[in-house]
Every structure is written in structure tokens, then in C-alpha cells.
Amino acid sequence: MRLLVTGAAGKVGQVFIPAFLADCRFAGWEVVALCHNRFIEPRERVSIVSGSISDEAVVARAMEGVTHVVHLAAVKESPDLVFDVALKGLFHLLEAFRASAEARQFILLSGDCVVGHIFQPYDQPITEASVRKAYPGCYALTKVLEETMLEQYGIQYGVNWSTLRAPWIMEKDDFRFALDFGDAQFGGPSWTEIVDEAALQRYRNGRYVPVLRDAGGGYLKRNFVHVDDLVSAILATIGNPRANGQLFNISMDQPVDYGAVGAMLKASNDLEPIEIHTPFHSNWLDNSKARMVLGWAPEVGLEQLAERAWRYEREENDPRVVWYPG
Q1: What domains can be seen in the chain, in order of their start residue?
Q2: What are the DSSP calls for 293-308, one per residue?
Q3: Distance CA 35, CA 276 (A)
Q4: Cα gap 280→194, rounded to integer Å
Q5: Which is nearest to 149 in space by CA: 139, 140, 161?
Q6: pLDDT in tens, 141-181
Q7: Nearest of 108, 120, 111, 187 to residue 149 by alpha carbon
Q8: Whole-prediction pTM
């Protein structure tokens, strides 16, 4: 068997490939790591293809002999790249995949941007049957189109597909810096848009943790997943006949409650909770289908997420990277 991993040098790819190679279920499988403009460490059983998935020749080279694809590559809020890479790239991959006699399964990593995460209101848990309601921006739009394109290839050509829809992916000290008021903040929301300048300066000079309120006045509930749990879900999907033609929400069992975050970090780290009102909506990404069908369950809950983030110490060769603005 031969597995192509796109976005192999990205946040998920760097964790997924070593986990895949160490999994005895995939002993003897080979990996093709496709990456663009990033370094990937050479490994046994891994061949590296460098180039953009928008280049049909690069895709053809990467797809040689491939039986399974895990498509992780994505373009965030980059309008000048988004159609060439996100959509043209997926089209090239699917065209090569459907024309291959060896091809067996195509797995797409999608995101809860497709259902608008905190930007769109839902009055019940968000399941795989919920209507797609992307938030503004080209990244969310492309994920809606990617999910639809993959489903249509299943209908039109019988492609065996599986889509994993993940919320905000956490690793290392991401969660700690998602709550940071300073310039090192990871992701969003942008504090300057919802906090006045004088208050923000005071928060930056003290030991505070933001406790967000949603549009209805309650504590905001937002969905997260740790990268280790996402990787275990991908591993549970590869070669799994029960995943054929299926979409799965891959998230923590419960969304993170910012009220609980404030209370927990006050007790454990002596941080003072600061309540901040936002226009965002609390939502619950329901992972019960993945638990039942894939036999998968997340291991990292809120307490473990925070404990790992505050315990993590970066080496000099491990700089913090802000992967995307929200």
C-alpha cells in the first residue's frame, strides 16, 4: 500500500506521518509526502515530492502507485492563492485518483468553518447533517467547495471518500497563547476589535485570562480538538470500510466553556478572569457519529488541554508560529 499525504510539512502532517509509520496496522506501507516551500525530514519508508498541488505534473508524480490519499494541504485567507491551490489542486488530485487502477480511498481534512463555528448560530448540536453555513472569508468558502467536490466525485465516479471535519486544532502551547492578550496571541479573536485600547493595555500588563461571553450573554462555548486526537481519528479512518462515503465531526466531547476556563486557570495558575462580551455564538460540534462508526474517542479534554499548554516549554529550534488568523 502507498499513502500520499499532502501538506505533509504542516501542523497536522508533521504529527500524522510519524504516528502512521509507528502504527503496526500499517507496517510495510509506504508514504509519499507532498509539501511546498517547507522542509520535511527524510525518513525510512517516506519519499518526498516537492511542489504545489496546483501543478498537474507535480500531482501526477506524487500520485504514482498511490492507493490512499490523506489530503491535509490548505490555503487560509489568501485570496490570490485560494482557487489555484485549494480548488484546482483538489481537482488535480481527484482526477488523478479516479483514473488510477490502484486508488482505494481519498480522505479529506475539512474544518468547522464549513458550519461557521462561532460566527453562525445553531439552536441544536451541529451534526454531519447540519446545513453548511460558512463564515465570511475565502478559506471557509473553499472548505465548503472541497467537501462538495469530494462528495460529487463519489456520486459521479464512484470514488471512495471520507471527510473528517475538525474544529480549532491545538498542539504544544497553542491553547495558552490563544488566551494571551499580547502580540504572541495565537489565532483569534483580535482583541483590538472587541476590547477598548486602555483596557487592553491593562490586561497586557497583568495576569489575566479572557472569559468570553457569547451573543446571548452566556459563557462562550467553542469547539477544539488536540492534534493527537485528530491524528488518531485519521488513523481510524484509513482502510476502514465503515468510513466509505462518510463525513465525520472530529472534536472534543464537549466544547470549551470559557467560564470553566477562567475558573480553572484562576485556581491552577492564579490568573484573574476578565469577562469580555462578544458577538459570537456558542455551538456544539457533535462527535457521536465518529465515536460510534469509527470506534474513535478523543483523549484530551479541557483540563488536559490546559495542562499540556502550560507545561510545554519550547526549545530554541521550535519557534512559535501563528498558523492562521482565526
Answers
A1: 2-169+225-249 (3.40.50.720), 171-222+254-282+300-311 (3.90.25)
A2: HT-------HHHHHHH
A3: 40
A4: 11
A5: 161
A6: 999 999 999 999 999 999 999 999 999 999 999 999 999 99
A7: 108
A8: 0.95
